[in-house]
Write a structure and sequence with these properties.
The chain is of the alpha+beta class. It has helices at residues 2-47, 50-57, 119-128, 184-187; strands at residues 60-85, 90-116, 131-132, 135-140, 148-154, 159-165, 169-182. It has one domain (35-187). Strands 1, 2, 3, 4, 5, 6 and 7 form a seven-stranded antiparallel beta sheet that branches. The longest helix has 46 residues, at 2-47.
């Protein structure tokens, strides 16, 4: 009888410690993403001060960090980010993955910022994620040479996209697909 009680108590303690460790790990990931968001916004506002007003007037914005590798004909990568709804002040954590086919060689560490000017575009991005395709770029940066910022597509004025590269060395022309989706673990659902 005592053995059964001790086993049950040990199981409860072990499970609660495991749940706490998982919660701590998720919280660390969330804090890392929020720190990355702060760095990207700081860099953007230093480079393009008018972007602050654009974000303040928008429905919301998203910031993602991604590392991608292109080796000759195939490439891929992945990352994480957060979408901020300016009206509800709610953050939604998301994941992203990329795959590409095309000629290239290099590693690209980049940050992307999406500014949602349209409520439907923001809601759709959070609920369904997005798929993008088609890309051609050339960037050569390394080490302490700094990074570069590029303004990307504007989807019929519903979404503006800025892309930052740091410590990347990339030369590619490829068909590139990127998928975004909610991170169930970090959002708690």
């Amino acid at each position: 009888m005592l053995r059964k009680i001790l086993t049950v108590l040990f199981s409860i303690v072990f499970l609660s410690m495991s749940a706490t460790a998982m919660a701590d790990k998720s919280e660390k990931k969330r804090q890392k993403i929020l720190s990355m968001r702060h760095e990207v916004l700081t860099e953007l506002f230093e480079t393009r001060p008018q972007a602050k007003a654009e974000i303040d007037d928008a429905e919301g914005y998203a910031v993602f960090s991604n590392i991608g590798v292109q080796l000759f004909l195939i490439g891929g990568g992945g990352g994480r980010g957060v979408v901020h709804d300016n009206h509800s002040n709610i953050d939604t954590y998301m994941k992203m993955a990329t795959a590409s086919v095309g000629l290239g060689l290099g590693v690209k560490d980049f940050r992307a910022l999406f500014i949602f000017h349209d409520r439907k575009a923001l809601d759709s991005f959070i609920r369904k994620g997005w798929d993008f395709s088609g890309e051609a770029d050339a960037a050569a940066r390394g080490g302490d040479k700094g990074g570069e910022i590029g303004e990307g597509a504007s989807f019929r004025k519903k979404v503006s996209v800025y892309q930052f590269t740091k410590n990347g060395l990339v030369l590619q022309a490829s068909l590139h697909g990127t998928k975004y989706w909610k991170d169930k673990k970090l959002n708690g659902n």
